[in-house]
Amino acid sequence: MRVSALFVLIVASAASAQSTSNGTNACLTQCSQQAAQNSTTDVKEKLAKCIKDASSLVGSAKCICNSDIAPPFESCLQQTCPNDKASFDTACSMTICPSRLTLVTVYMDTARVSILVSSAVAFPWKARSFLPPSDTDSRTPCPGLNVLANEGVLPRDGLNVTPDLIKQAIKDTYNFDANLTDFVASGAVLFVREDGTFDLHDLAKHGIIEHDASLVHDDADGAEFGSVITNQTKVQAVAALSSDGKVLSIHDFALARLAAEAQSPPLGDPIQGFADMEPSLVLNAFGRTVGDDVVLDLDAFKSVYGENRFPTGFVRKVQPVTFDDVQSVADRITAAKKEITAGKR
Ligand SMILES: *[C@@H]1O[C@H](CO)[C@@H](O)[C@H](O)[C@H]1NC(C)=O
Ligand SMILES: *[C@@H]1O[C@H](CO)[C@@H](O)[C@H](O)[C@H]1NC(C)=O
Ligand SMILES: *[C@@H]1O[C@H](CO)[C@@H](O)[C@H](O)[C@H]1NC(C)=O
Ligand SMILES: *[C@@H]1O[C@H](CO)[C@@H](O)[C@H](O)[C@H]1NC(C)=O
């Protein structure tokens, strides 16, 4: 992992860093390079080892915040871009405050839901059209991102994209507000190369964003990259959990998460939280409210998870989807899992 990319990640995670069009922040890039130049080999090696041993993004972030490389970095930020220094300090304080962990680590399998179907508007990109990926197209384990590439909202080859491009596509397509968009896209910053771009498949690197116990993918099972191939047997198994044969409810997704987790090693924090959040993102982008439940029609489930394409008649939500919307449905999925598990004992 390049140190400068991690710096950019931490600051970007604070959701306020001003990005340039190539998806990186020139000041952050410059300061991280300068800080690295000004630091001794010993300091850099210690940092590299700490990051290598860290089992999570939060762990990596802590390495940087606690490293002797941080003071020259901050001093450069203070001189060159004081607002980014404030963001960096905030992000570092988040790494030691568990309730804010999600904002630092961020990103996940994907995104979608809505609570406000009645106010949905027509999707602005009617002209876009679905094409399944070719063998050489680069894809993620995240259905919601793959949808954007397969529909031509993102470059179809999935190569050389930038975090800013991802953010714009998510905002325009799923109407996630700025906060949620930053949250969903911030993990991507980790994978950015020197030229400011990354390929969608980079996100499949196991154990960073990608994780085991996916609803529709096989476990990485020792491989460097998790599978981006949808396992159709799993798609059918999840669809079969529908309580009424028409939709997947919060309860049904809880069943699906439990079934997936029963087959894989424990996920651990904070990945477990993200794993419960992933169906919430889908529900918020593609689902609809029924009474006090939020549901995803089975047809939509099969389109999004099975084929990574827009459901028939897809419309984006009129009301921007917020981080709290997603967290609240995720909390209900987590609670339903606990209830189901308790009921079985
Ligand atoms: C880092 O080195 C540059 C020259 O490469 C120097 O101008 C700058 O003051 C140094 N910054 C710190 C914080 O040591
Ligand atoms: C963004 O998220 C943070 C943390 O959840 C919250 O404190 C802040 O109010 C949010 N900002 C907006 C504009 O929603
Ligand atoms: C990104 O673009 C800015 C100006 O647009 C440039 O100064 C900077 O070097 C670029 N960063 C990378 C990593 O290419
Ligand atoms: C797909 O999932 C099924 C059920 O979990 C499993 O038996 C199978 O090995 C998986 N992989 C493939 C390539 O079918």
UniProtKB/TrEMBL annotation:
Necessary cofactors: heme b
Short name of one Pfam family: Peroxidase_2
InterPro entries with a match to the protein in the record: Chloroperoxidase, Chloroperoxidase-like_sf
Keyword terms of this UniProt record: Heme, Iron, Metal-binding, Oxidoreductase, Peroxidase, Signal
Secretion signal, residue range per the UniProt entry: 1-17
Domain of life, source organism: Eukaryota
Domain Heme haloperoxidase family profile: 126-328
GO molecular function: metal ion binding; peroxidase activity
Similarity annotation: Belongs to the chloroperoxidase family.
Full protein name: Cloroperoxidase
Organism: Exidia glandulosa HHB12029
